[in-house]
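Project outcomes to date are best conveyed with an example. Our students and postdoctoral researchers have been running inverse folding experiments weekly, and each run begins with a structure described purely in tokens. The record below, which covers 326 residues, was selected by the lab manager from last quarter's runs and is presented without edits.
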């Protein structure tokens, strides 16, 4: 990799390559854990752990032309050229980060699904706290004095508010185009500090469905060890493959678009993203109301406590990272 990375990319040259990749993997696990729940961004975790700049540069310098070496890997010179190209694009780093994120998402998805099944009101209240506090932390009062930011904020809030209303109660169809598009948009959210891929899925009404699908697919893969090929391996696997294909396309389109927008219209882009989060608060509110059959003192206390815990998580994270420039 080039040497222009910032000093917060703390790679120790005396570390063994394996240990260095293990550290990167663990940072990917932290990012995946954050992205598995709506509100906290994996991009924020990348900032905290000092790999955000390296991650963005690695993603945006991937060149598919390196694949021309693949048919000739039997040749030593072409094999060495292929290996060198992968190192120059920092592919080992991306593989370590990606593997860590997938590991965490697979694990946390099971906990989230269990929470949504057993305590849906408290879970969505927790999401409300995460998203609402994130919007407060990322918001900038100066946006109110800039017309472009105000317009972007109104558009962002309106879009999210309308989509959240349509998504509440799981009314959004999980068709192939919707799942593919969700993958495209979610991967863009995953690399943004302040907005998570899970938040995008929640806004689109796909979060619960895709979480359940992922868990069923993982269970089907585990069943392969005993020689059992179950239906979910094919049916749920097709959904996972469609989402992954969308994520791959999004990685090379949405990510570049977001980077372009942030470089040229940073304030307006951030105002739009934060307003998306505010407008999307309609969804957890509707879900809490739908999941609460009777409002008792205990039910209200449970919802308020869960929301407060979600907000505290974000505020503590913001306090720890107060010196970071988002």
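After processing, the design step wrote out the following sequence:
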């Amino acid at each position: 990799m080039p040497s222009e990375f910032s000093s917060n990319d703390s790679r120790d040259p005396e570390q063994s390559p394996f240990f260095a990749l293990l550290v990167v993997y663990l940072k990917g696990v932290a990012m995946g854990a954050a992205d598995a729940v709506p509100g906290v961004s994996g991009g924020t975790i990348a900032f905290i752990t000092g790999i955000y700049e390296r991650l963005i540069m690695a993603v945006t310098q991937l060149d598919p032309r390196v694949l021309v070496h693949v048919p000739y890997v039997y040749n030593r010179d072409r094999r060495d050229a292929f290996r060198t190209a992968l190192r120059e694009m920092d592919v080992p780093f991306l593989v370590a980060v990606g593997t860590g994120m997938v590991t965490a998402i697979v694990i946390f998805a099971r906990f989230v699904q269990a929470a949504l099944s057993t305590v849906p009101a408290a879970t969505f209240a927790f999401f409300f706290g995460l998203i609402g506090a994130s919007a407060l932390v990322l918001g900038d009062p100066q946006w109110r004095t800039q017309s472009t930011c105000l317009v972007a904020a109104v558009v962002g809030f309106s879009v999210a508010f309308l989509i959240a209303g349509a998504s509440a109660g799981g009314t959004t169809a999980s068709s192939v185009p919707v799942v593919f598009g969700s993958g495209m948009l979610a991967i863009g959210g995953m690399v943004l500090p302040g907005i998570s891929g899970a938040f995008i899925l929640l806004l689109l009404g796909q979060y619960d469905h895709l979480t359940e699908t992922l868990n069923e697919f993982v269970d089907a893969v585990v069943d392969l060890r005993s020689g059992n090929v179950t239906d979910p391996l094919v049916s749920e696997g097709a959904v996972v493959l469609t989402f992954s294909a969308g994520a791959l396309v999004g990685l090379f389109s949405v990510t570049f678009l977001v980077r372009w927008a942030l470089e040229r219209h940073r304030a307006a882009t951030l105002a739009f993203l934060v307003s998306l989060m505010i407008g999307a608060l309609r969804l957890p509110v509707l879900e809490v109301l739908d999941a609460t059959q009777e409002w008792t003192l205990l039910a209200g206390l449970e919802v308020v406590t869960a929301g407060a815990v979600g907000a505290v998580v974000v505020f503590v994270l913001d306090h720890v990272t107060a010196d970071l420039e988002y």
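The first helix runs from residue 17 to 35. Residues 17-318 form one domain. The training component of this project remains on track.
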